[in-house]
Amino acid sequence: MCKIPDIKDQIPLLGIAHKFLNVELKDYIKIMFEVFDVNIPIQKTWFALKLAIVPNTPEQFKTIFTSPYCINKPTVIYDGFFSKYGIISTNGEVQDKHRKILSNSMTPTILNQLNPIFNEKIKNFVKKISEKVEKSEFNIYNYVAACTLEALMKGQFQHDHDCYGSEVIEAFENSKEIMMRRIVQPWMSFKPFFNISKLAKDAKKVFNPIHKKVNEIINVNQHLKIHKDQKVGVLISQLLNFKNEFSEEEIRDEIFIWIFGGYETTALTLSTCLLMLAMHKKVQQKVIEEIENSKFDERFDITNEETQNFPYIESVLKETMRLFPVAPIILRETTAEIELEGHKIPKDTILVLPIYLVQRNKDIWGDDAENFNPERFEDKKNQ
Ligand code: HEM
């Protein structure tokens, strides 16, 4: 263990937490990746008094993602999502139960049923954008985010909400800073510190419109009744029809984390993809040609099956997610000793997987690893 090199600029037990003091949210990721050395396959540091290991190769990622001892998420960090019982942050039996019931809301059949909603929301988005283009500068992320949030609210929660300029979307956007601050300042993971902090007060204020919205979603859908044999439905019906399985807090936490995890990820990916298209005119032209050569027309009524007919657009999306992964770091915690790169990693160690670095590693992707080049995904070996 002691042979594993330390990441640079860290202090014992606190790791690199000191580097985030008085830093803006937009600089967090830059700071994190400055301390990792891309050329070292495995490094160590500390987080909230716990040992943390940073594996930096796809082989180690594979070992971790397939190990039964690396399933848990480190609660000291995932508590920062303010969703104790949500599927993304919870562990053990609660997570197993939630996965079993809730994965039924994402089956291909359910997603196909949601297509008319996606199409309707995209038409509305195009209408809103058309009123803006070629007039003055505007931030397209706000429009994409409103579109993905509306689609999610209507699709998985049967809830109509105009998200363009709504205080709910503003609250979700502000909550990102609160979440990140709680995560990168490990002392905030100790409840007594957090509870008396300014961050806790800010969190209460920021999350208020979201909690109100979650209550409204539950109240509006209270009457849901599923047929006895019907084991699948959109998320809200799964949550409310299997009410005996979930506590009230579990239901609230799930609604919160699915909305957040569902709209923000897609909005960031899609708006970054639009930015890449604007910056790479040749790629943009190929995308336009693929659309023009397909049967898809301006009605925007596309089925799940038809989405398979756009291989180039698929490569463009993959390349966007390679260079700009919405989860640039993923974390796990060991529940037994494991072996990585010939080192024995003890139980209760935090594993910090730097997805962003591996997806830009020149040894894996070639010398043009930093370039936006969707064509690389046309090569079978990269698919
Ligand atoms: C571009 C879009 C998306 C990206 C890049 C993305 C990325 C991810 C990543 C990296 C994780 C693993 C997080 C971790 O283990 O720490 C994850 C988990 C999850 N995501 Fe997404 N996501 C996207 C869209 C969505 C959408 C639209 C939904 C729901 C409507 C969703 C729901 C979930 C759920 C429920 C989990 C937890 C799964 C489990 O642990 O069983 N995601 N996502």
Order of helices and strands: HEEHHHHHHHHHHHHEEEEHH
Rg over alpha carbons: 22 Å
Biggest sheet details: 4 strands, mixed
Structural class: alpha+beta
Instruction: Give the strand order of the largest sheet, numbering strands 1, 2, ... along the chain.
Output: 1-2-6-3
Strand content: 5-15%
What oligomeric assembly is this protein in? single chain
Enumerate the spans where pLDDT stays under 50 for 5 or more consecutive residues.
Answer: none
Shape-level CATH architecture of the largest domain: Orthogonal Bundle
Shape: globular
Which ligands occur here?
protoporphyrin IX containing FE
Mean of pLDDT: 90
The number of distinct β-strands equals 6
Family: Belongs to the cytochrome P450 family.
Keywords: Heme, Iron, Metal-binding, Monooxygenase, Oxidoreductase
Organism: Polypedilum vanderplanki
GO molecular function: heme binding; iron ion binding; monooxygenase activity; oxidoreductase activity, acting on paired donors, with incorporation or reduction of molecular oxygen
